[in-house]
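Anyone? Bumping this.
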Amino acid sequence: MNSIQERQEEIIEEFSMFEDWMQRYEYMIELGKSLPLIDEKHKTEENIIKGCQSRVWVYAEMDDDQVDFTADSDAIITKGIIAILIRVFSGQKPEDIINAKTDFIDEIGLKEHLSPTRANGLVSMIKQMKMYAIAYNSQQNNKA
Amino acid sequence: MTNTSEQILDIDKIRKDFPILRREINGKPLVYFDNAATSQTPTQVIDCIVDYYENKNANIHRGVHSLSQIATDAYEAARETVRKHFNAEFAHEIILTAGTTHSINLVANGYASVLKPEDEILVSAMEHHSNIVPWQMLCQKTGSQLKVIPMLHTGELDMEAYKELLNANTKLVFVNHVSNALGTINPIEQIINLAHGVDAKVLIDGAQAAPHLKADVQALDVDYYTVSAHKIYGPTGVGMLYGKEELLNMLPPYQGGGEMISEVTFEKTTYAGLPHKFEAGTPNISGGIAFGAALDYMNDIGFEAIAAYEMELLNYATTEIQKIEEVEIYGTSPDKKTAVLSFNIQGLHPYDIGTLLDKMGIAVRTGHHCAQPIMEFYKIPGTVRASFSFYNTKEEIDSFITALKKAKSMLL
């Protein structure tokens, strides 16, 4: 299994092949369609990432010592963004998720989605995923 | 170009007044269709701000020195321009504020000491959050009841329901002159007359109306009227509260500070008269002066020509967009609309459309437009809103339609 770092590098390489924004967004829309969908029963108010435009739900489960994420959104570009994050973080150890850097966002040309005016900004999604990791990490530590 | 209003308005010349229209966004010429959020600023207004800081900057209403007098004169001349534009009886009925939100809060705060628990206040279903939340906060303070004037599917207010809601306990009515999310022009003359029939006072939020039509506060007999300068080609952070003299006199001051006092001792302060009672602290002086310059700019072009040309743009855009399948337009009240096109494409999220349009250099607003009750009414997450100004062109609408088709094909 690849590390978070390796997965980020893979994504950077994929995105580097695109010549313009249109190809990049077409790819993101494709990725959005392949998003590991959250189970309907987890599409609850508490799993929603509050934003002003599109709605995003993220859910996490522990599988052995790894965190698995599922998500959904009513906007397809947002789904593409969350799919990229899930590809990076899903199946990783909580500790690794907590410590992961996310500079790759910049490199794949999605910096504009980091702006706080963007509803469901990437920042809130990353924060939510890291919060899950922190919660599972402390659960593990308590058991140990 | 063959049509008359474009001939009346020299669009090429007008566009040259707006330096920002020359810039590119994402490598494409900017097509700015987010005028209902904020309008762009002409050189005449920008120059006025620069001139203030280069030649007139001093604090107003308090210096004996000449520069302070020059600045004061310019500021008060702007207040007079605003008075004249809205045809208020007295210049002291024009309170220069930080904008519509500030204006509304000033009135809401004042009524906290006037309203009683049995009183009712009416607010329309199509208000901007800034004309809902201050009244909710007021009701929490006073125990008064907030009631909602419902809307119809066409995006018009249900006037029959409004008549039924009015009663002897109704003290205040709040309606926007034009809906920001839909562009509907509300029948405010009728709303005001009916409210006065039960002795209720009316505040009209004119933020979205002011760019397109000229309100005459005396003819309307409106009690309070608010606008923001940044939506009428002026700077941000300035606006107006108009209030009838006796009603402004009745309200207590909103903020304490310098400028708003007549005499201060530690035992007691007596307040200054209008308008200074509501203008505590050093105001946005350059902004106030530029607000006047913006109104001059618009009046030089002429509101009739502006309205006629913007209506042509709206009609053209509406016809063209309807050629795209599965487009739904919100706010369809015929002949009672300003140049706002609020729409969705079936199966697509407004956020996705807005994001892709931006990549093609087209600035529109997407989302709930700070009017969530309207979105709730239509059961939609939001809309895409293209709002036009007199500096926009049919060619820009063509680019927008082409970009919209492209976005649709990418998303479906």
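Late reply, but here is one note on the structure posted above: Helices of chain A lie at 4-16, 21-33, 76-89, 94-99, 104-107, 122-143.
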